[in-house]
Amino acid sequence: KAKRDKEHYMTKRDEYKEKIKKLEKEVEEKEEGLGELVDKAKRWSEEKIQSRKKVNSLTREVAKMEESLKQQEETQESRELVTQKFESLSRTFARAEAQVKYMDEAVTF
After folding, report:
1. Residues 85, 86, 87, 91: what is their CA dihedral angle, to the nearest 10 degrees?
2. CA separation for the pair 79, 76 (Å, rounded)
């Protein structure tokens, strides 16, 4: 019985060694991929930011920000157009104010 137990544990040990080798190989592959991702991130931004948030949470947050930015771009007008409208409305207001002043003077006369 001891011989059978010894063989059993020897085969288990060998299986675990094989599993360890496979996992070590997988870890090496992931580390290589991580190096590429780190290089890519450094190209985008040199500053490393630590966050306690999970990746899924950050991904959702970025998606919401992109959607918000897209909506703002659709609804907001360009600076030049806003400036033109302001100047036009300012002139209209000035004319209306002058007319009101003229009417006020006419009424008091």
Report:
1. 100
2. 9
| 77 Cβ contact partners less than 8 Å away, ≥ 6 residues apart | 85
Contacts (Cβ under 8 Å, ≥6 apart) of 53: 61
Structure tokens at 62: 């970025």
The residues, ordered by sequence, that sit 6+ positions from 51 with a Cβ below 8 Å of its Cβ are 58
DSSP 84: H
Distances (CA, A) of 91 to 80, 103, 105: 17, 18, 21
What pLDDT digit, counting tens, does each position of 51-94 carry? 788 888 888 998 999 998 888 877 877 788 888 999 999 999 99
